[in-house]
Amino acid sequence: MANAPVSEYRGNIHQQQKELMEDWYQQLDHAADGGDPPTVSMMVSGNCVELLEGFGAVPIYPEVNALQLAIRHQSLDPILAAEDMGYAADNCAYVKADIGCMLKGITPTGGRMPKPTLVLCNFVGCNTYVKWFEHVAAFTGAPLYVLDVPFLRGEEPSAADIEYVVRQLKEVVQLMEKLTGRKFDFDRFRQAVEHSRETEELWSQIKHFSQHQPAPFDAYFDAITLMGPLYVYRAKKEGVEFFRSAHAELKSKMDAGEGIYDQEKFRIVVEGPPPYPYFRAFRDMFAKWKACAVASTYSTVGGLWEFGFRHDPARPFESVAMHMLAHNVTNRNYLQRYDQIRRYVQEWKADGVIIHFVKSCRLFSAGQGDMRDYFTRQLGVPTLYIESDLEDPRYFAEAQTKNRIDAFFESLEHAKQTSGRAVAV
Amino acid sequence: MLQDLSLGSVRNWKEQHPGGKAVAFFPVYAPVEIVHAAGMLPVLMSGAGDRLDIQHADSRFGSFICSIVKTTMEMAMTGHLEPLDAFLFSSICDSARNLCFVIKRNFPQMYVDFIHLPHSTSDASIDFLSEEYRRIIAELEKLGGVVVRDDDLHRSIALYNEQRRLVRLLYELRARSPHLLRAWESYVLVRSGNFMPVEEHIDCLRQALESVSEREGKKRDSIRVVVEGSFCEQPPLEVIRLLENAGCDIVEDDFSLAQRWFTRNVPVMGDPVRALAESYVHHSVYSSVRHDTTHPRSEGLAEKVRRTNAEAVIFLIAKFCEPAYFDYVLFKQKVEQMGLPHLLLEFEEKLFTFDRLRTEIETFVESLVFD
């Protein structure tokens, strides 16, 4: 297989996504002039962007900034700047890139980043988030509120869990009223929850399109294109329109029997974030084998909707709380992630699971050896385990990664030809 | 006892208490009063030190994961946790969070649970944590076939208040007269409480306090240091000795915080569950695994330095311990603002050569002595 086939689908979605994200950065640039619109630093995982709409506030997502830098090969300088000031080689590189940028005045687009009206740490299982936002607050001088979301210890959140989060959401409302001098617009909040419900329905249907053979899009690499609008615009009219258009575009591809390759040879589930500094190279390693991701856990960081959860305008605070507690991959417990992947393998009819260990992110990666044991030994699902990083270009061993990916698909191919069972690589 | 991976003291306790349950918890803190009030033995599992080769756990927890997570998993996979009936974890870091569920999957015979200790000091946090403790109490009642009454909890709280008071006294004594009580001695003494019934530990602490006060010793010409960063995985005893032999008087540290978690007594009246929750939210010691936006942890460190008249801070951080690495950045800035020298050292539970650490420590101490 000499040349990698063209794998990337470039339809209207990509152009619209680019415009939306540019518009978002322009709003942030504008806010740098003097606090209008108000801005709130928030984490992508289990974000409560609906609540912000009640104040007409715009989210700042440090993770999105960090990944934009990495994908443009600009993450190493700020990482090194952060290490110079004391961050360890083994700290999350997202944090280092973000702090490094803040200190050096770098932004992904070259525009300005405002001092946030509020640093809202939506703590959903990731302990690094708390530290990260403490540092953001310390370095920007902006006020910090830690919204403590109980980790999902059992299958479902308890009544006490939900009440705890709702009470804190209401505290955030009071705090924002004080900080912005604006009154919380409950109707607009409820409308935002309604928009989210619509967006989520469309997104969930899109995710189910990849159950089709061939899948009309790659639910790992292409899903990332859709994730920006999902987190920034989910609760706005523009978000609903974007997803309506993406839905129509991908549905017509599915109905026409178009996949991402001329022929879909392998269907995979991917666990873990991508290596953004080598995003293109990494994608090509799978394209070479005409392997399409039919589902991924990374695309459920901000919310897990394909199993049925929707925001509910009849219970806006409670449903925002439920989303933060139980319907994003980071706040769900580790065994629930095993089960999520198991469902993907079975219901999306995948040939194997790619487990991408990411050095920066222990939330994703600690224990993935056990996850692999579960899939290979207990379920007999072929798995591939590879290691790199999502932000730091120093941890990507290109030749070694490629060799392992090649070996995995060779083994899968052989198993398909001989009707045998593939092994783990 | 600290060396005994077979958990002999736990086995002994179980022999003496037929049907009794041993409830382990992973660092840094757990509401031990609840376990004790259920008639069970709380056991703080803080790794296997250098006494166990990692042969199986590496296949479950790969690169860039700290040693204590791996040695705990290794102990589980090699049958060392057999005397334990339950294992509790809490929201201290992402690796420990996942370890909880990996243990749960692989050892279904054990009751494994995760306590969400709040990262906020909102009033809502106290109500939530009270409910969380009630949930754990119900689980323990099921496990032991027992009923936990308020009176039982009050008695347990009083006992642990006494344990914490004695440990605080021990630390005060050490800060006042480090030549009479070395840090490595108090470390062993406090840490032995991990495996011992609290009643026995209280006796040990009382005896120790009595005998130390009778000691005579000459003051040394040493540097008073605060050691910070070893709140979960514990450094080898050798490292603590190294610091002391190099001329440091360790006047404060964050080793074994569990035995002095609260800065004051938990009230022994009213609703005991709420008293424990309220104490956690408002009267915990500062630690890198607990977040209180109203009192930054760097202020906690500064207060520790001032209270003990320390002349330097040594950051002693376990390899791959992300909470400690993060806090180091803001701590370092604070210590520099205070005009104090500081040194960063990394350790793993399993260290066989101490030459590099010794050189770093000696160079640091010399630079201060001859300054």
Characterization of the model:
The complex is a heterodimer of chains A (425) and B (371). By secondary structure, chain A is of the alpha/beta class. Chain A has helices at residues 12-31, 49-53, 62-71, 76-84, 93-104, 127-140, 159-180, 186-209, 221-233, 237-255, 279-287, 316-326, 334-347, 362-365, 368-378, 398-418; strands spanning 39-41, 58-60, 118-123, 144-148, 266-271, 291-296, 352-358, 383-388. Chain A has a domain at 12-183: Rossmann fold. Helices cover 51% and strands 10% of the residues of chain A. In chain A, helix 2 (49-53) links the parallel strand 1 (39-41) and strand 2 (58-60). In chain A, helix 8 (186-209) packs parallel to helix 10 and helix 9 runs antiparallel to helix 10 (237-255). Chain B contains 13 helices and eight strands. The termini of chain B are far apart.
Could you outline the blueprint of secondary structure elements for this entry?
The complex is a heterodimer of chains A (425) and B (371).
Chain A: H1 12-31, E1 39-41, H2 49-53, E2 58-60, H3 62-71, H4 76-84, H5 93-104, E3 118-123, H6 127-140, E4 144-148, H7 159-180, H8 186-209, H9 221-233, H10 237-255, E5 266-271, H11 279-287, E6 291-296, H12 316-326, H13 334-347, E7 352-358, H14 362-365, H15 368-378, E8 383-388, H16 398-418
Parallel strand pairs in A: 1-2, 1-3, 3-4, 5-6, 5-7, 7-8
Helix pairs in contact in A: 1-9, 1-10, 3-5, 4-5, 5-6, 7-12, 8-10, 9-10, 11-16
Chain B: H1 8-16, E1 22-25, H2 32-37, E2 41-44, H3 67-77, E3 86-90, H4 94-106, E4 111-115, H5 123-144, H6 150-176, H7 183-191, H8 198-213, E5 223-228, H9 237-245, E6 248-252, H10 272-283, H11 297-307, E7 312-318, H12 322-337, E8 342-347, H13 355-369
Parallel strand pairs in B: 1-2, 1-3, 3-4, 5-6, 5-7, 7-8
What's the gist of this structure?
With 425 residues, chain A is of the alpha/beta class. In chain A, 51% of the residues lie in helices and 10% in strands.
